[in-house]
Design a protein that fits this description.
single chain; Rossmann fold; GMP Synthetase, Chain A, domain 3; 9 helices; binds zinc ion
Length: about 400
C-alpha cells in the first residue's frame, strides 16, 4: 500500500495566483456566513463600517477587525451558528463554556473530504486501516472529533481513550491495528518510530474550530489546511511576520456551523515556505513557539492563571502563589504550584490539589514554600518549557 501518494484535493497544490483566488472565495464565503448567522461577527463587521459587498478580494481581509480568543469566549461566539439543542454533541471547555461543532442533522461527510481527512491522508492513513484512538472521549472534542473523521475517511476505530495502558498493549498484540492517534505525551512517538518503523507524524489543531495543519511523509513542517485563511501576525502590531519568526495564528474559516473571522487563538507559530517534496504548496508551520497570552497548554489542556486564582481565592491562608510548568526527564509536563501560607492549616495542600484537579482538570503538585520565596510581581503561571 502506498501511504505517501496522492492529495486529498487540488486545493493543496495551488500556485500563488490560484491560491489568492481560492482565498478570496474562502474569505467572501466566511463573511457571508458570519453576516447571515453570527450576531457576534456581524456586530464586528458593522462596528468597522463593513458590509459583505465591501469584502471583494483577499487584500480586504485586513480591513476586518481581529477577534481575540478571550473576547469570543465572553461573547459566546464559539458556540457556532445554531442553537445547542440541535447539536450532535456538546463539548465543555474551562469556564465552563459549552460549544458544538456539528448538528445532528448535518448531511453525512463526503468520504475523504472532511478537514481532518486531508491531514490523515497526508500522514499516511488509508481506507480500511484499523486505528487505535487514545484521545479523551471525556467532555473535550478530541476523542469523538477524530473518530468521526477517521470513520468518514473509511477507517475502523478502536475508541480506547487515554487510560488502561495494559489493555491497549493487549489490543495492539491481538488486533491487526495499523494506525494510532494520540497525544505525544501518551506514547513517546519518536522512540516508537525508531523501534517499530511506524510512520509517526504530527498535527496542529485546536478546539477553537481551526482546520488542522499536518505533516506529510516528508515531515518538513505542518502544511496549513488549504481551505481556510491563516495569517501569522505580530500580536501587538498585527503586521504579518516573515517566515522564520514567531507570530500569532489568526484564522478565517468558512465553516457554516462555526465560522471564524480573523480569530486570534493566541498560539505563536513559526512558518516556513520553502518547497515540500510531497507537492503540497503554501506555508507550513515549522514549530509552535508558545502562547501569545498568559495561558499555556499543560498535558494537552489549556490552563489560565485566572482559573488557579479562583481556587486560591477560596483560601485566605494563601498569601501568594505561583504555578510553574516544566518538562521533566520523561518528556512530560510537570505542573507545580507553590503557595506561601500566612498560617498553617491541616490538610490545606491536599484540599487545594483536589480543587485544582476539579477546576483546572489537571493534577498539580502543590507545595508550601517559606514566605518571601515567590517574588513580588512574579508571573502567576510561569511556563519554563523550552520550545526549541
Ligand atoms: Zn509535504
Amino acid at each position: 500500500m502506498d501511504r505517501k501518494a496522492g492529495l486529498s484535493s487540488d486545493s493543496e497544490a495551488l500556485d500563488d495566483d490560484a491560491r489568492r483566488a481560492h482565498q478570496t472565495e474562502l474569505l467572501r464565503k466566511t463573511v457571508e456566513v458570519c453576516w447571515e448567522s453570527s450576531d457576534f461577527y456581524r456586530g464586528k463587521l458593522e462596528q468597522a463600517g463593513l458590509k459583505p459587498d465591501d469584502i471583494r478580494d483577499i487584500d480586504d481581509l485586513t480591513r476586518i477587525p481581529v477577534t481575540m480568543k478571550k473576547e469570543a469566549m465572553t461573547a459566546r461566539a464559539g458556540l457556532g451558528t445554531f442553537p445547542l439543542h440541535e447539536a450532535k454533541r456538546i463539548f465543555v471547555s474551562p469556564g465552563p463554556h459549552f460549544y458544538a461543532a456539528q448538528r445532528r442533522d448535518d448531511p453525512p461527510p463526503v468520504r475523504g473530504q472532511t478537514p481532518l481527512a486531508y491531514a490523515f491522508h497526508a500522514m499516511g492513513f488509508r481506507e480500511n486501516d484499523i486505528v487505535l484512538n487514545t484521545f479523551s472521549y471525556h467532555l473535550t472534542p478530541g476523542g469523538f472529533g477524530l473518530e468521526d473523521q477517521l470513520i468518514a475517511m473509511g477507517c475502523a476505530v478502536v475508541p480506547a481513550g487515554p487510560q488502561n495502558t495494559e489493555v491497549q498493549v493487549e489490543i495492539l498484540a491481538k488486533l491487526p491495528v495499523t494506525g494510532y492517534v494520540g497525544t505525544p505525551t501518551f506514547l513517546k512517538l519518536p522512540e516508537l518510530q525508531e523501534r517499530t518503523g511506524a510512520m509517526v507524524r504530527q498535527i496542529y489543531g485546536s478546539a477553537d474550530g481551526l482546520y488542522p495543519a499536518y505533516e506529510c511523509w516528508a515531515a518538513m513542517g505542518m502544511h496549513l489546511h488549504p481551505d481556510q485563511v491563516i495569517e501569522v501576525l505580530d500580536p501587538e502590531t498585527r503586521a504579518p511576520v516573515p517566515a522564520g519568526e514567531p507570530g500569532e495564528v489568526v484564522a478565517t474559516v468558512p465553516n457554516p456551523n462555526r465560522p471564524l473571522l480573523r480569530f486570534a487563538n493566541a498560539d505563536l507559530v513559526v512558518l516556513r515556505d520553502d518547497p515540500c517534496p510531497c507537492g503540497r504548496t503554501g506555508s507550513r508551520i515549522a514549530r509552535v513557539a508558545g502562547r501569545a497570552d498568559e495561558s499555556t497548554k499543560v498535558r494537552g489542556m489549556f490552563v489560565y492563571p485566572d482559573q488557579i486564582a479562583e481556587v486560591m481565592a477560596r483560601h485566605p491562608e494563601v498569601q501568594r502563589w505561583q504555578a510553574v510548568v516544566e518538562k521533566n526527564a520523561q518528556g512530560t509536563d510537570d505542573f507545580r504550584v507553590a503557595v506561601e501560607l500566612g498560617s498553617e492549616a491541616a490538610g490545606l495542600l491536599d484540599k487545594i490539589t483536589q480543587e485544582l484537579r476539579d477546576h483546572v482538570r489537571l493534577r498539580a503538585d502543590v507545595d508550601a514554600v517559606a514566605p518571601g520565596t515567590i517574588a513580588e510581581g512574579a508571573k502567576r503561571l510561569d511556563d519554563r518549557r523550552s520550545y526549541e
